[in-house]
Amino acid sequence: MSTPALQTGHVGLNVTDLARSIAFYRRVFGVEVLGEQSEGDRRFAFLGRDGTLLVTLWQQSGGTFPVDRPGLHHLSFQVPDIEAVRRTEATLRELGAELVYDGVVPHGEGASSGGVFFTDPDGIRLEVYAPSGADTAPAPTQGAPTCGFF
């Protein structure tokens, strides 16, 4: 018996400050709050677009994202074109977000696909990319994909 076709559902992220994370994700990704509980011991939010759940935020952690432990490596979002990536980059710069590379970069040497790589307020590594148009900049990492965050 074969496995039915799979599609990624939503991604759940642990955050330290629910209100701060909601504001960041709404501004950067243009998502809306589909549901939330912001009082009491169990704080969470469901974020999405057009009624489709994309990301859930759970305020149940402390510290910053541990990049040296097994688990989530990074979360990536595809947009239709490089102009949308550049708009995201501008928003990130306005917010003072930490960019991993200097602006929009290709996924690797000779690649046309690429994007902007950054972290959220808790240090979670994120990417917004387009399938083409990023080949105007050099690849920042030699011999490995840019999305490896090496």
UniProtKB/TrEMBL annotation:
UniProt keyword annotations, A-Z: Dioxygenase, Lyase, Metal-binding, Oxidoreductase
Database matches in SUPFAM superfamilies: Glyoxalase/Bleomycin resistance protein/Dihydroxybiphenyl dioxygenase
InterPro entries in the record: Fosfomycin_Res_Enzymes, Glyas_Bleomycin-R_OHBP_Dase, Glyas_Fos-R_dOase_dom, VOC_core
Span of domain VOC: 7-131
A molecular-function term among this protein's GO annotations: metal ion binding
Source taxon at top rank: Bacteria
Keyword DNA damage (UniProt): no
UniProt keyword annotation of tRNA processing present: no
Protein name as catalogued: Catechol 2,3-dioxygenase-like lactoylglutathione lyase family enzyme
